[in-house]
Amino acid sequence: MKKARSMYPNVFWIAILFITSFFSSCTNNNTKSETSIAEIQVSFTSEQYEEALDGRLIVLISEKIDKESRFQLRDDSKTCQAFGMDVNDWKPEEALQFDTEAFGYPVRNFKELPSGEFFIQVLFHKYETFNRSDGRVVKLPMDRGEGQQWNKAPGNLFSTPQKITITDGQFPAVNIQLDQKIPPITEPEDSKYVKHIKIKSKLLSDFWGRDMYLGAHVLLPEGWESHPDVKYPLAIMHGHFPSDFGGFQTTPPDPNLKPEYSERFDVDGYNIMVQQEAYDFYKTWTGPDFPRVIAIKIQHPTPYYDDSYAVNSEAQGPYGDAITYELIPHIEKQFRGIGEGWSRFVYGGSTGGWEALAVQVKYPKEYGMCFAACPDPIDFRAYCLVNIYEDKNAYYQEGTFKKTLVPGHRDYLGNVDASLRDMNYRELVLGTKGRSGQQWDIWEATYSPINDEGYPKRIWDRLTGEIDSEVAAYWKENYDLAYILKRDWAKHGKDWEHKIHLYCGDMDNYYLNNAVYLAEDILSETTAPYYNGVVDYGDRAEHCWNGDHENGNHISRLRYHRMFIKKYVDKVDKVAPKDADLKSWRY
Known about the structure:
CATH class of the largest domain: Alpha Beta
Number of helices: 12
């Protein structure tokens, strides 16, 4: 009996200790859960904006502060961290609590952030409301002269970076004032050779329900003023938003310029090389042996990207028609262009490469030749490394027992530093509904039909990578350039003959050469007529290779004008009518 009686108190106290420990553990876990998520309150003042704002709020966390966090978000392992959330009707002086469940890149949520000392910066990307002619009301970032760059857009608000300490996913609450506002862009000034124009587009203004403009930087040929009766061919360079006619300067490189290293090309003093190439081009352009043409770089940013991709689309409107039938005739009239299809030729690389081929395909009689270097995917069987018609998922190569991430970016030796999923997740942080202003979103804004809200339909689910076969079918019929060439060769082959020239490095960083291979197969099988163009590849050449077998990408990418203007002139007699003036502008 004594033994039994002494045992019960022990059991009792053990139970008490267990229950106390259990509740203590629960309390500690709850406390950690509450403090492990950041409390970030953000506000702006009525001095910055008196009205309520819509847009995207982006929290950026970086390890280094040699440059602001807003300039450190990228696809590879050197990226900073970012979280994003949509904001509607945010009033001045109102403290906004950042959503702690917001999607993040590359770390998905706040709880998983590494420990250490970091810098936090918050940026607000401002949206406007568009009442489009199709009846849709959408909220998008209007370009404000910077070329649709979220971290540089005038009017966007951002905070001064401040240091924080993260320990096991915990860091103290922070109150952040968006104390800075990005100033307006200064417009470039005209010079003897370079002029700048901007026109209101009726087609685009009607579509968007507000005034919309197109612009261009115009490089006039030597002798333009002294030959008032001469009319000139028009060299149209497509590509990303140009702030001016870059790559042309009338003075030698600045002798006081401090050499800068180019991470992209692994070259020291690249900034000096750029200026030297620009000065050399000026001497070539004004020299006695260079063809006399008008060269232009056009500005056509949209609420989705730094340019429109130069074609009509459901989400962006009739940019192809506006450029072809409004902007270009205006330039030809003002600066004495010949104004006929054969006398207009297009060229560009990457985005500009796709655009050059696209306008030649979409407007076969309105353009006389295209030179497309390292073009964005021109055959969607090789949409980078995705076949949108046959693959089920864009992010993974899937087997019964294993899933492998699809690469997104490589170097010339094949070393991969980003997956396709990484790239898409970064864009998702910057904007929902295709509003990141980045590469994969603009492809959708260009190629996709719109959804019920008026935004582009997704070619694949941004979180899972699952491909939408109906959207893929729409892309094929309307924007798969290689497929359209094959489908319509019997109808337009004579208008495309001698006009198509493709160039790509066989180690393109984004695997764009794969689509060029497929397009080459289609072109090589053309008959009545044979395409009589060029497809060329650079051995181990990376992105931006444009047909120069003698120089590296870092040099050849600066020589588009002098390369392709001469190629056009050497072949213009193949596309010009018999009575065309091929002499007066060759003085």
